[in-house]
Amino acid sequence: MIFKVQKRPSRRNGKLVETRSYYLRYRIGAMPSDKWKSLGVSDKQTAYKLAQDFLAELQREEAGIIEPKLLREAAKRPLKSLLADFITDLETKGRAGQYTRDVRTRLGRLFTEAGWNRFADITADAFQRWRSAHRHEFAAKTLNEYLATASNFLSWAERNGWLKFNPLKRVERIDGRGRESYVRRALTDDELRRLVAAGGEYRGFLYHFAARTGLRRNEIKTLTGRDLHLDDETPFFVVKVANAKNRTAQPLPLLPELVPTLKRWRALSGGPAEPVFARTLPRVRDMARDLAAAGVVQKDVEGRLVDFHALRHTFNTFLQCNGVSLRIAQQLMRHSDPKLTGKVYLTESMLPTKDAIRSLPALLVGEGYTQIRAQISGAGSPEPSPPGAVGNGFVLMQPLGIGGVWHAVSQADASGGMVGPTGLEPVTKGL
What we know:
It is a single chain. By secondary structure, the chain is α+β, with helices and mostly antiparallel strands. The chain has helices at about 45-65, 70-75, 80-90, 100-115, 125-135, 140-160, 190-215, 215-220, 260-270, 285-295, 310-320, 325-335, 340-345, 355-360, 365-375; strands at about 1-10, 15-25, 35-40, 185, 230, 235-240, 250-255, 305, 395-400, 405-410, 410, 420. The strands form five sheets. The chain has a three-stranded antiparallel β-sheet with strand order 1-2-3. Strands 5-6-7 form a three-stranded antiparallel β-sheet, with no helix packed on it. Strands 4-8 form a two-stranded parallel ribbon.
């Protein structure tokens, strides 16, 4: 252990000088190097007393008798003061706007209604009691968002050394399946055409644009002329990192039918840095009026809702109904989790399941199958062989999956055994 009270030497203008006040030079335990602590006094006896008190405190912390000073000081701070630091840190990292407003609202409500004033007040039981009291007021999704926000705040404090552990880390989320307050649905192509017509030149194009790009409301609102690349061979747009929910920027292709109108709105925007859609985006009552004029039910008998965000559901469903793979749809939707693309944002009732079944090949066709069926049923002469049968064998027809090409999987040989197709695979007799 090193423990020495002295004035700290330093070089000034090439000369070695000492500070006016005393410092403690110390090293305890497994510290790799010496540390210096300013004692802030010029009297050596006073400095020595302060150094002894500091060392005693460090040793009590090392022995676990008291918590580290950083923890003890944070434990005294009001949570509202720490919340202000948390918001500032989020804004520094680029998480501003609606996100930070939601964080402030949720944590402020939790602090007030759960009676949380200091870190010591926050427990898993206290949160669960608050959540139970609001289970009829909020949907499961909203309550899970409160949990996530509070847990993020506490994890931030833990990373800063102000909290030993996150007390909400093991609190489970609510399973919201089947308990949603409402579920959105996608619009059919016919419904979308009628809505676009009912919305007029401005709102109608916004509905069309949202339903064929999947952009969120705020992303459309903040789209500028500089983000649109309409004169490229393949026109595309870019959502800025600051405006994207997932905080990633990537070029996304545009449908050609959108480009002419986008060029016109960009020309009217007033400059490359100005929003393309300077006017107000459709409000709830505006869209409700347009839906009614288009003859589209806003809430169907199953309780599924159509609102502006439902146009994002429409885009995803449009992609998958037209054969776009889940991975590509996930990329275009900018989802981090494929479950969002394959489940949450998909109106499954619109998938072409009937067409998919009709396109599947028949398993049992051929004269051999007809003879077997005739023997079982006791019928007389066999039925005529369907087209594609090979000799008198039992033929299974399967598609190769390209252009409707078919091949025979197996057929009977002269002895009645099953023979596999020849070629690279060896011939096998007797299944």
